[in-house]
């Protein structure tokens, strides 16, 4: 038997004009949406332009009507009413818009030996050493004592200062070299350098006072306002094409904003779907999907209940459960792209290769599939047919060798409602690094695949 022929997404690409524009939009999305708040703000703005109405503005939910729900400004849902009643189920693509980063602590500002710093607490799975000696920007909000919310972005404009975390010079790193890679930089050592000019301030900590003076003059922030702040240190700079042939995209937060963007493109042009069509953008996936903006919260279930009440004139809990159990969904999240430099951790027969299209994963999880959804083969077969009919290049993969490690997605939290769920995304190189790499060809196949899934009907 001859070996299976490798199918490349590039061979079937023939990019449309709108897909060229989509790549430009994606670069902008990555560059401007570096927090979950910023990402949802962009997505909601796009949705509003094509007719998605706020949920509380709707009096009914009839075929073709478009609705959106913002979840505390950090997550959101888009839906289009289908021709079939919502109680029969729906079609959904669900992604997350949070990403690994450094969060500023609630009592962060201090001075030591004439330098001012912010204390940070890392968010999600990072390699701590990757975040030193790197240009960083501050993004987020500070809610003042009086309730006024101040939005902050510093370090992105070419006239802005940037921030950084100091590393140890190699000349004095003898002891550091002897440590494990995971211990070379400690979590408490990830302190953001802010300045060292006392600016004629008096007192025991003149540099700290000078920094506070800048914050007060520019933003109205007092030191105790950090208690009610949500500030994130993220890589500074715009997303870019990578490679001589511009076939890769390099940018921060592509896990999982590459899938979030593709999910948006999948629903953007839909007008009259057969099934009610839903796209979900959640927060907190990188830390276990907890909190009232993560997938473990009940806002999605409540959203479906609201739509059913609009469609039927009354709330019916049993109908909500039936709708959820009859749903079919793609958990839109990325896979580990095969990197020849680290081949020893991958099962080459079951890896996501760059440029070979959309990736479907029957299961994720760790070692013995712990924390996995493990999709049913009947549903996988259905998704295969949809992708093949839409001429979407796709491949299958799992997350590295069996006992090497692993990871999870939000699929398991969707599956608890009884719906069919399959993990589906693209391969990413340098996942969770400050700069991640995706493939242009794979992204386009993912956009096409998500759209095909959302509009498909048997």
TrEMBL record:
The keyword Metal-binding applies. GO terms for cellular component: cytoplasm. Its EC number is 3.4.11.-. Its cofactor is Zn(2+). Keywords: Aminopeptidase, Hydrolase, Metal-binding, Metalloprotease, Protease, Zinc. One of its GO terms (molecular function) is metallopeptidase activity. InterPro entries: Peptidase_M18, Peptidase_M18_dom2. One of its GO terms (biological process) is proteolysis. NCBIfam families: PRK02256.1 (NF002600). Belongs to the peptidase M18 family. This is M18 family aminopeptidase. It comes from Desulfosporosinus metallidurans.
């Amino acid at each position: 038997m001859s070996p299976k022929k490798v199918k490349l997404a590039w061979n079937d690409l023939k990019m449309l004009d709108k897909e060229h524009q989509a790549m430009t939009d994606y670069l902008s999305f990555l560059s401007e949406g570096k927090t979950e708040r910023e990402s949802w703000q962009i997505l909601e703005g796009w949705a509003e332009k094509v007719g998605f109405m706020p949920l509380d503005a709707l009096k009914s939910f009839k075929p073709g009507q478009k609705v959106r729900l913002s979840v505390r400004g950090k997550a959101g849902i888009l839906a289009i009413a289908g021709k079939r009643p919502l109680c029969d189920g729906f079609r959904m693509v669900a992604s997350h818009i949070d990403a690994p980063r450094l969060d500023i602590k609630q009592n962060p500002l201090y001075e030591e030996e004439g330098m001012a710093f912010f204390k940070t607490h890392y968010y999600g799975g990072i390699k701590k050493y990757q975040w030193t000696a790197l240009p960083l920007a501050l993004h987020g909000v500070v809610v003042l004592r009086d309730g006024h919310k101040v939005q902050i972005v510093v370090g992105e404009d070419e006239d802005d200062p940037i921030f950084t975390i100091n590393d140890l010079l190699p000349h004095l790193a003898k002891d550091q070299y002897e440590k494990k890679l995971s211990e070379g930089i400690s979590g408490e050592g990830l302190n953001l350098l802010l300045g060292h000019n006392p600016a004629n301030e008096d007192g025991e900590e003149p540099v700290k006072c000078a920094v506070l003076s800048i914050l007060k003059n520019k933003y109205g922030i007092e030191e105790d306002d950090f208690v009610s702040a949500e500030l994130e240190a993220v890589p500074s700079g715009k997303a870019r094409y990578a490679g001589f042939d511009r076939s890769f995209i390099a940018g921060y937060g592509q896990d999982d904003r590459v899938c979030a963007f593709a999910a948006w493109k999948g629903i953007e042009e839909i007008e009259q779907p057969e099934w009610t069509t839903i796209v979900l953008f959640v927060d907190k996936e990188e830390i276990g999907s907890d909190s009232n903006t993560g997938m473990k919260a009940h806002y999605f279930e409540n959203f479906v209940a609201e739509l059913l009440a609009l469609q039927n004139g009354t709330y019916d809990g049993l109908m909500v459960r039936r709708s959820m159990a009859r749903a079919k969904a793609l958990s839109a999240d990325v896979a580990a792209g095969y990197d020849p430099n680290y081949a020893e951790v991958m099962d080459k027969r079951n890896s996501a290769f760059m440029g070979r299209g959309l990736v479907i994963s029957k299961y994720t999880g760790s070692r013995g599939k712990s924390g996995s959804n493990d999709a049913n083969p009947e549903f996988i077969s259905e998704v295969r047919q949809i992708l093949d009919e839409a001429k979407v290049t796709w491949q299958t993969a799992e997350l590295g060798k069996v006992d090497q490690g692993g990871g999870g997605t939000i699929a398991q939290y969707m599956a608890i409602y009884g719906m069919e769920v399959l993990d589906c995304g693209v391969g990413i190189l340098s996942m969770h690094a400050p700069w991640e790499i995706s493939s242009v060809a794979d992204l386009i196949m993912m956009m096409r695949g998500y759209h095909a899934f959302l509009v498909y009907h048997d």
